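User:
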Amino acid sequence: MPEAHVEAPTVGSIILASILLKLGSYGLLRFLISLFPHSTLYFRPLVLILCFLGSIYGAVMALVQVDIKKIIAYSSISHMNFAILGLFSLNLEGILGSMLIFISHGLTSAGLFFLVGVLYKRFNTRLLRYYGGVFNFMPFFSFFFFFFTFSNIAFPGTLNYCSELLVFLGFLLSKFSFLFLLALILPFLISVVYSVLTYNKICFGVKSDYLSSVYDLTKLEFFILSILTFYTVFFGIFSYYLIDFIYLDISKISNVYKFI
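Assistant: Predicted structure:
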């Protein structure tokens, strides 16, 4: 997945992160969890362990990358592992949170990959060490990058916050070990570190000699990012619109596991 994200053009990375990754998650929910409840319960511990390790692995790998697109790619992998964790909590809250992560991740990752594409289009490099002080001549870019960076770490007021909070609630209601719940916080702490460091390195600090003053976002780029920002905030505040839309179907699936 990291290679597929990095080697693909910007449009390919956006489609891959926002749509194609969700097809696998849809398959797990629509076919595995819905049609094979006993098999799901049997393999559930293995899936939870793999997703937990994958979430930490993605966060740690993002922390040490020098390519901006690879940072976002590994971050995307870490968050999708957490979404599958919510899916296999097998209760209403966890599955609802997982479904909301699929939507919020599609918006946030699409925005971040689009912003990296904007940088690459202007400077022809994705290496972090060539950047610094971008805020001085690209303030609108810096604002959107700031927003999607904090959305990626589930800042309150965004859809990511609501979805990941529901996943944590699902695990609390599943009566998992308290140590396991504490361990789930580790990938998020790491994500805060690499997200803030990446933003600070690109937008602030001493201006790199490699960079020259260029134009900020075009009208089209501004419009696309504004749409993604609007839906991330709108559904973060009014997330009950999404929950009401999928609540009935998810409750039918979760009710099956109450009687097994």
